[in-house]
Specification:
By secondary structure, the protein is mainly alpha-helical. Helices cover about 50% and strands about 5% of the residues. The relative contact order is 0.05.
Length: about 180
């Protein structure tokens, strides 16, 4: 019955069973049950119980870890947003301080001021372009940017249009539901 060289979970109790190996064991058990035409020997029944417990434990552990990872991801996104806001605030403070130094130099009618350890000097910089009214700029000086209208493309393909460069891909979404008491998959 089955592959005699196959290592079953009961033969590797000290090894860590992964979800994929538990799933492979469940599939192998299905094959053995089909070969046995549904006859449950004590060995198969014991293995079935062990595989069921292992898969259930792994599923619950995966849910726990996924929940923790999602919480960590949310926390880090909030932290990143707060850090980005702090960086913007610091950049504004830095620019304001530089503007005060420039204003002080203009007020003192000098292009250089010195401290004990540092000095600041005004020097000519590259001229920068200031856009006053974008609507008045000739089109020759405008850059046009295109991006795919994914909703329109998807609707067109679903209605039978053949469009080069895109296709619709069928995927599966992983959803999480609480297990009803006593229910088994």
């Amino acid at each position: 019955m089955g592959d005699p060289g196959r290592v079953r979970p009961q033969d590797r109790r000290d090894a860590v069973t992964t979800l994929l190996s538990a799933a492979a064991d469940a599939r192998a058990l299905e094959v053995l049950l089909q070969e046995a035409q549904g006859e449950l020997s004590p060995e198969l029944e014991s293995w079935m119980d062990e595989v069921e417990k292992t898969v259930a434990g792994k599923v619950d552990a995966y849910h726990y870890i996924l929940s923790r990872l999602e919480a960590n991801e949310d926390h880090l996104r909030i932290e990143a947003s707060a850090l980005e806001a702090a960086a913007r605030s610091i950049a504004k403070v830095r620019e304001n301080m530089k503007a005060r130094i420039k204003m002080a130099m203009l007020t003192m009618d000098t292009d250089e001021i010195k401290g004990s350890a540092w000095r600041f000097k005004l020097s000519p910089a590259q001229p920068r372009l200031v856009v006053d009214d974008e609507g008045k700029i000739p089109k020759d000086y405008m850059v046009v940017s295109y991006s795919p209208d994914k909703d329109k493309l998807k609707a067109a393909i679903k209605s039978g249009a053949a469009i080069e460069g895109v296709h619709i891909e069928t995927t599966d979404a992983l959803r999480t539901y609480p297990n009803k008491s006593g229910a088994k998959a």
